[in-house]
């Protein structure tokens, strides 16, 4: 697990699935998603982490 924001301790978990790590990083690091990160962080508290190989 690679934390991206906050502490890697989760009371609730939401899983988003991507075909591979490059696609996930392309989405998360994109200029299009940056304003949504700022909006989410302003409106809520939470932690974000990458879990490679998870199959839910």
From TrEMBL:
SUPFAM superfamilies assigned to the protein according to its UniProt record, in alphabetical order: Dimeric alpha+beta barrel
Database matches in InterPro entries: Dimeric_a/b-barrel, DUF1330
One Pfam family it belongs to: DUF1330
Gene3D superfamilies (UniProt xref): 3.30.70.100
Recorded superkingdom: Bacteria
DUF1330 domain residues: 3-54
PANTHER family attached to this UniProt entry: BLR0684 PROTEIN, PTHR41521
Entry protein name: DUF1330 domain-containing protein
């Amino acid at each position: 697990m690679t934390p991206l924001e906050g502490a890697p301790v989760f009371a609730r978990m939401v899983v988003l699935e991507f075909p591979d790590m490059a696609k996930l990083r392309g989405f998360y690091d994109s200029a299009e998603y940056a304003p949504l990160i700022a909006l989410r962080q302003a409106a809520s508290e939470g932690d974000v982490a990458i879990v490679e190989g998870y199959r839910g």
